Amino acid sequence: MPHLLKTLSFHARCKLSHLLSHNRQRPLSSSAAALCLAAITVGGAWPLTAFSDDRPNIVFVLTDDMGYSDLGCYGGNFVPTPNLDGLAREGIKFTHFYDNAPICSPSRAAYITGMYPARWNFTTYLDNRAQNRDCEQVDFLTTNAPALARAMKAAGYVTGHFGKWHLGGGRDVTNAPLFSAYGYDEHSGTYESPEPDPNITASNWIWSPKDKVKRWERTGYFVDRALDFLKRHRGQPCYVEIWPDDVHTPWVANEEQQDSKKGWQSRKNFCDVLAEYDHQMGRLFEGLKSLGLDTNTLLVFTSDNGPLPNFKHTRTGGLRGSKLSLFEGGTRVPFIVRWPGHAKPGTIDEQTVLEMVDLFPTFCAVAHATLPSAFSFDGQDMTAAFDTKSSKSPRTIFWEYGRKSKLFHYPGPVEDRSPHLAVREGDWKLLVNPDGSQMELFNLASDRNETNDVAASNEEMASRLKAAALAWKKSLPAYSAPVDP
């Protein structure tokens, strides 16, 4: 049988592996195995519930606050980023990837659930309880929601989360579910999590000079934890999240800068932090290679939202907006996929439109994991795009950011402040407030920087997209304030 296995497709090997190992105390006879092989190769219609050791590891790197043009491969010229530029040369660089929110917590909730974060009442970053209520949002991601790590674990993957969480816990939120409730076998979380790693949380706040692992060492720490996890679980399919809190401010690049806030948001400090971040990503890539895992690992690199500050839009490549804005600079971010044997090296995909919620069904498809049947996912399986098959299929994407709070009078530059709702359909993008005010329409094919509002000259398109955005908003679950523990 071993020589026959080599001739089968990956899917068929998974099915046969399941049949042969389903009951190890009563192995299939040779004739039964042959019948199984025939059924697989001819019919191929059996449900795929098997676990197979040759399924790829999945490593998802979620950078914090990286702008569309921070990296050299996306046009940035702040500082050389040879390792991340090299990653793009070894895989696919996408130019139309969108976060489902212009700020961390809802963007991360979109990834974890595969659903628009507004469906779970995420509207901005999670804060203390009083502020969360003012923003009409929850205190943490409920375990009633789908969780990607839980689906991966059910499919036989070993699961780990290393880095920022910010989906519950910290400040005065003491009843957030533990990492295991979402399906993680191992974890190392920052302050804004239910189980902060003591090596990086010496005080009751996000960062302290007293931390055992210093601010400028944290990305390296998360890389080390992830590589150690992968090393200990070689021979098993692994799902790993690496979520550094770089390149989020404060930019503290070395020991000399830790005791003074001067320069924490300076261009020089940003360049120093970005250079170190690229170095640590290089350590990750070399670590995978040293472990012999690089050829069977799907590695995806992106950011949770756009940059702040944006240095007069140089960090967004001219795109209007920033973090805290639904204009392109707040939601369109770098997105690189390296998948040896699938993603063709050196590919630049300028056609496919992807969004954060797509990663749940896509990773499940790659892992042959079952999508939870109780939910209607907003994301789509984009495996074909990861396999270098670009798509121009029209898509409709919705966003909501901000509800009834003084916190949403940002970012600073008035021209970057957006309405609270947005919808993209094909090349058209419309922004509007829930009361129908401040409507703006742009054609991204001819105006990627959103400088020319064409609503007046495209009344039919503007009216239709406005109605769609408002109907989507109306369809969202009603907010109910959490009950204090």
Brief account:
The chain is α/β, with parallel strands linked by helices.
What is the fold's blueprint, element by element?
Blueprint lengths: L1 H4 L4 H12 L8 H14 L13 E7 L18 H8 L2 E3 L2 E2 L5 H10 L15 H6 L13 H7 L3 E6 L22 E4 L28 H15 L5 E6 L23 H24 L6 E7 L24 H4 L3 E4 L8 E3 L4 E2 L3 H9 L15 H4 L9 E5 L20 E5 L2 E5 L7 E4 L15 H17 L10
Parallel strand pairs: 1-6, 1-7, 2-9, 3-10, 4-5, 4-6
Antiparallel strand pairs: 2-8, 7-8, 11-12, 12-13, 13-14
Helix pairs in contact: 2-3, 4-9, 8-9
What does this structure look like?
The chain is α/β, with parallel strands linked by helices. It has 2 domains: 57-386, 3-Layer(aba) Sandwich (Alkaline Phosphatase, subunit A), CATH 3.40.720; 419-475, Arylsulfatase, C-terminal domain (2-Layer Sandwich). The protein has helices spanning 2-5, 10-21, 30-43, 82-89, 104-113, 129-134, 148-154, 218-232, 267-290, 328-331, 359-367, 383-386, 459-475; strands at 57-63, 92-94, 97-98, 158-163, 186-189, 238-243, 297-303, 335-338, 347-349, 354-355, 396-400, 421-425, 428-432, 440-443. An 8-stranded mixed beta sheet has the order 5-4-6-1-7-8-2-9, sandwiched between helices. A 4-stranded antiparallel beta sheet has the order 11-12-13-14, with helices on one face. A two-stranded parallel sheet has the order 3-10. Helix 2 packs antiparallel against helix 3 and helix 4 crosses helix 9. The chain starts with a helix and ends in a 10-residue tail after the last helix.
